[in-house]
């Protein structure tokens, strides 16, 4: 059972892409994919929260925007909630919390250095397990770390095959006449003691520790590729003229989602084909707005996001029509 919190800071990108001098496709794509969404995955343990930061990769970051929403139609005590068929709250909107700086700056810098080396070692699509020698302060569950190197699948046949391999939700090939540009499926992987008890991860940690103990010289990083089949996320980017369409889903694996709400934006909940859908409205000027939609899919236990941006965008009505098609 876990909890996921998401955040985004892409208002400036939307403003740029909607301005008098629209950004070229490559610039919009790079900025949106890098900045649009950063993902924090939090899952609870019996006595404490376990927080894992997964740095956004160019495509994987489209996965989940941190929906800094304001719900002006709701009182402070009546934030939007989405429940499953059993009445359990799966998605909960809450007041935005201030970002706190970590006190472990040195450890974070070391981790970033080791993670960068592991990414350089990885092939596209690979999940790399790595172990850092002489980091005795870390508990056993934290000793083995993971990094995934994004693989942009530019052929829809390859993308759909990867979706079928992992059991992720299938995304369409050409929604609303937009052409498929690329897609990505991201892996789930362990982060706590119970999950680390799986044989694959126990053996991997023991193997890398043994290499570290036998190593001579100054080598500190030990790593290997590990197989994966369980998805954490799936996302796809589409284009039509100067417009872009993004569809993404994050698997919740039995957990729940917390969405922080800022005071500048608006959200309202409606029902589409029997499913609660949140229409998020982001102001990008005195008379311009950007809409993106989010919803919970109980069949996949996944949180979906649909966004349209660029020189041409889908209206709220067309976005809702597309959501209805995706729900069929």
Automatic annotation (TrEMBL):
| Keyword Transmembrane helix applies | yes
Q: What keywords are annotated for this sequence in UniProt?
A: Membrane, Transmembrane, Transmembrane helix
Transmembrane residues, as ranges?
A: 58-77
Q: Could you identify this protein by its name?
A: DUF4367 domain-containing protein
């Amino acid at each position: 059972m876990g909890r996921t919190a998401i955040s985004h800071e892409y208002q400036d990108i939307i403003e740029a892409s909607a301005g008098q001098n629209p950004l070229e496709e490559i610039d919009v794509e790079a900025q949106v994919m890098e900045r649009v969404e950063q993902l924090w995955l939090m899952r609870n343990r019996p006595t404490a929260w376990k927080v894992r930061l997964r740095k956004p990769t160019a495509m994987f970051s489209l996965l989940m925007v941190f929906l800094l929403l304001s719900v002006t139609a709701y009182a402070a005590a009546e934030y939007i909630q989405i429940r499953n068929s059993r009445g359990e709250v799966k998605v909960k909107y809450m007041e935005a919390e201030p970002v706190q700086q970590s006190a472990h700056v040195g450890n974070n810098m070391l981790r970033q250095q080791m993670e960068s080396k592991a990414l350089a070692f990885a092939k596209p699509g690979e999940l790399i397990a790595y172990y850092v020698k002489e980091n005795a302060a870390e508990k056993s569950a934290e000793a083995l770390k993971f990094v995934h190197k994004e693989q942009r699948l530019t052929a829809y046949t390859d993308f759909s095959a990867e979706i079928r391999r992992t059991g992720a939700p299938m995304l369409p090939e050409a929604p609303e006449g937009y052409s498929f540009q690329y897609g990505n499926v991201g892996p789930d992987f362990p982060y706590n003691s119970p999950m680390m008890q799986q044989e694959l991860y126990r053996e991997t940690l023991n193997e890398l520790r043994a290499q570290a103990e036998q190593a001579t010289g100054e080598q500190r990083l030990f790593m290997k590729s590990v197989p994966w089949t369980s998805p954490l996320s799936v996302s796809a980017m589409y284009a039509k003229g100067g417009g872009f369409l993004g569809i993404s889903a994050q698997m919740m694996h039995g957990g729940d989602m917390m969405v922080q709400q800022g005071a500048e934006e608006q959200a309202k909940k409606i029902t589409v084909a029997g499913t609660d859908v949140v229409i998020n409205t982001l102001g990008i000027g005195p008379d311009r707005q950007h809409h993106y939609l989010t919803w919970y899919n109980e069949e996949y236990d996944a949180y979906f996001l649909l966004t349209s941006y660029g020189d041409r965008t889908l209206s709220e009505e067309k976005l809702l029509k597309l959501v209805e098609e995706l729900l069929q």
